Predict the 3D structure of the following.
Amino acid sequence: MLLTEKQLELVDKQIKKLIKTDSFYGKKYRELGIDGCKSQEDFDRIPFSSKDDLRFSYPLGIQAVDDKDVVRIHSSSGTTGRPVIIPYTKKDVDDWATMFARCYQTAGITNTDRIQITPGYGLWTAGIGFQAGCEKLGAMAIPMGPGNTDKQLQMMIDLKSTVICATSSYALLLSEEIGKRGLKDQIFLKKGVIGSERWSEKMRNTIKRNLGINLYDIYGLTEIYGPGIGISCDENNGMHYWDDYIYIEIIDPETGKRVEDGQSGEIVITTLVKEGAPLLRFRTHDLSRIIPGECACGCKFPRIDIITGRSDDMFKIHGVNLFPSQIESILGMVDGIGSEYRIILARDNDTHKDVLHISVEAEGRVDFAESAKTLSKLAKSKLGVTPKFAVVPIGTLSRSEKKTKRVEDQRDL
């Protein structure tokens, strides 16, 4: 998808503002002789930006406005390397709330809803973004934050929450607890807005079935405002994103070249009106595709497909490159296998070979040993590797109140 004339104008303004500053990108663009953007060709010459840039310019090297204009900072939830600090102006905060309110509206949520917010608050962008959008919409915010499941369920029942906002991991945990405690007839939930981590179709169906609600994928990342820059609709065919605030292109992660609409690749985002920390051509490492054409729901905003993984999620075993999503596709082929799994990459000291261990959950009605054999055969035929599968009862693998870590590489420990 190429830039529209209006988007080109906004990118040109962003560059002209940046080169007047001593910010990291202001200096970089001046050094490269980038002084504007009048065409798609000009835009394509702009170098990609990355999380490494943001870590290098820690703490506030990417700030593009005076201190007096910064009203808030947020930091990414990543656990490796220097943290990433993103400054926000009042307009940035307001724009983010407007986008988030659009997300709620796209999901059919109104000011009569009661929205229970379980993602974390603080430096992470999640909780406060869900709340700001809720308040902009005029709905009732129930700002629970993560954890304390007993309290979550009490508030859900007593306040008759109609919408739950959560990571997919915590939504699964809550849905299982509601089932275990026999509370399903006491809850009033109608919709779930789920984000922060990629989740499988099997996991989605489990949550949907357990809670009896409609689920919506919400998209975003701290570097680009936070969650709320896109969401799925009732058609469940991709996520609409707000192209008056951001421009999305899809590139081949290996070559960096833009791919045609409809083809899969890495999402690259340009902020069109962000003030505190504008980012041009930011590589997200999220994998998706632009869905051509208009959505049957009637919304005119463009769509990307749900996130299928991350380009940096790949792991290598026996010379084969694999993604967690490929393991999930195998699990989805076997009856009775649940959505939860854990991958451990280990080294056999006796044979000096790498070993792929995968623990999965299964319903009690199936034969665990036979299921393990079936999964191994499928993995060998579909992926070219033969993992060691351990099948355990539903509920055995640990649940997370935030994001679930599914891959652990012990080969270098």
Observations:
- The chain has a mean pLDDT of 92.
- The CA atoms of residues 32 and 46 lie 9 Å apart.
